[in-house]
Amino acid sequence: MIRLHHVAQTRSFRVLWMLEELGLEFELVPHSFFDRSLREPAYLALSPAGRVPALEIDGRCLSESGAILQYLAETRGALTGTAGERPDWLEWLHYAETVGSHVANLTQHHIILRDPSMRSPTVMRLEAKRLEKALEGVERRMAGDWLLASGFSAADIAVSYGALIGQRFTALDRLPRVAGWLERIAARPAFRRAAARDGAAAIYTQAFYPPPEETPHA
Ligand SMILES: N[C@@H](CCC(=O)N[C@@H](CS)C(=O)NCC(=O)O)C(=O)O
Q: Which residue's CA is the nearest one to ligand 1's atom 9?
């Protein structure tokens, strides 16, 4: 049995959605960021840094979402794009972390650091801009309806997760192709099934987290 260790709204959603796209049966094991369970020795045996996702599959456990998407696509023979598209497919799978790193930094400053004195308004503004720049790269390079010309692939899952969460930190007004892509994604039956299994929102509870205003110099 495939078993996915998951926290709602996190990168493990990529894997949840991929499993739904592939039509695989799996057990979903929900975890929380707020009860220290990801730091228990039993969980650290599954995920060395105590993070989600962790996917128990084929007699072992994988804990990098990009590697998991690639492994699932390659071993289950689906959502890989064509052979000729392989360099682009790999590039997008990893570009997901260019987007994801800004989302993670913004999440730290807007949400995880609860005491405002620990937050950096400069980092919040800078990271929102850098996220927008990373999404502009998607806007410019999308092949058509999806990232690859041959159609929907695991690359769309990897990158769009960052854009879906990222739009809570940077508006997509100037990125119409990205906005249209997210609408197509939201209409996919497997995405809807994954969203229904994701769990209650405990991290992102606001639709938008605006960057702090710049304080005018006196
Ligand atoms: N590179 C890893 C990053 C995994 C990761 O940082 N996951 C976050 C959720 S998005 C996590 O589990 N954070 C919990 C923590 O840092 O304690 C991946 O893509 O799977």
A: 10
Ligand 1 center to 149 CA (angstroms): 30
Nearest atom (ligand 1) to Cα of 39: 17
**In this structure, are residues 105 and 97 in contact, taking their beta carbons and an 8 Å threshold?**
no
pLDDT in tens, 154-186: 999 999 999 999 999 999 999 999 999 999 999
Q: Which CATH number fits domain 2-76: 3.30.110.40, 2.30.40.10, 3.40.30.10, 3.40.50.1240?
A: 3.40.30.10
Taking each helix axis as running N to C, give the angle between helix 12-22 and helix 189-197, from 0 to 180 degrees, rounded to the nearest 10. 130
Fold of 83-188: Glutathione S-transferase Yfyf (Class Pi); Chain A, domain 2 (1.20.1050)
pLDDT digits 0-9 by tens, 92-113:
999 999 999 999 999 999 999 9
